[in-house]
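User: Okay, second chain of the day. Same drill as before: sequence in, structure tokens out.
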Amino acid sequence: MARAGVGVDILEISRMERAATRHPSFLSRVFTEEERAYCESCARPLEHYAARFAAREAVLKALGTGFSEGIGIKDVSVGKDQRGRPVAILAGRAAEVASERGIQEVALSLSRTHEVAVANAVAMTPDVRPRRDEGNDAQREMQASFREARSVIDELERLQDGIMDTLDGEGDAEEPETGELPLAESMGE
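Assistant: Same drill. Structure tokens below.
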């Protein structure tokens, strides 16, 4: 069955700063050694930590699970491919769920400002994944597939812009109730 799941998450950098300050073991409990090494090598590590936390949430939304079905906090992490682009790394129960659902790849995009980090994830089965085939027909199909993927990314960017516009316009307004726990509480703190 063809399936593509989409997940988006946004996280305020200040929430990551508060969690890291209040709970000294937070970063080592939540992030892999590779993620910590990468983030700590950056000029503003907490922005990168926040992007990676948002990526976890976005990937799990794309898988359709959230942190349920036995998925642990380190079952999703962010690595880099040979070109330096972020990639979702699934381990443990997250990898099992992806396999059970026929998900072959999770495409990942991360963005951040000094205030927020945003992650977009698209989980794809082989039927919806862009293919490389031989011949002109295959080339046209691939181009069409990439156009479709680009339209998904464009829509995610439009949603992200709307979220950013909403956040910019809120100022000190109260946050809407979403049913989500504050970061530290969602981590079992």
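Residues 172-189 have pLDDT under 50 and may be disordered.

User: Thanks, on to the next one.
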